[in-house]
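Our consortium's second objective concerns turning raw sequence data into structural hypotheses that experimental partners can test. To show how far this objective has progressed, the report includes one record in full. It was chosen at random from the queue rather than selected for favorable results. The single chain below, 111 residues long, was entered without modification.
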Amino acid sequence: MRVLTPLFCQEFKNCIMNIHPALLPSFPGLHVQKKALDWGVRYSGATVHFVSEEVDMGPIIIQAVVPVLQDDTEEILSERILKEEHKIYPEAVRLFFEGKLEVQGRRVYIR
């Protein structure tokens, strides 16, 4: 994992995607499954977003929701989220290359 420079992010604005194992804008950064469990959220998930100068704050392309169960551990929740990541990342890339994503401000519209 790398934090890209602001200049690099500006040069490739809305061209680089990242996947994050939480429902952004909640829980950016690291150790997000622990944060979700500590906060007692009922749902977590994954987010594909465009990379921006701020870490995990770019326009959201696609999200997938997973339930957080009472007996979940970080590992179990991570596995459940990873299954969804494997579905939504290829979908976001497909939409991008088919020219179906339109960014207006912070919002991404799928045409």
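The partners drew two points from this record. Residues 6-110 form a domain with the Rossmann fold fold (CATH 3.40.50.170). The mean pLDDT is 97. Both points have been shared with the crystallography group to help prioritize constructs.
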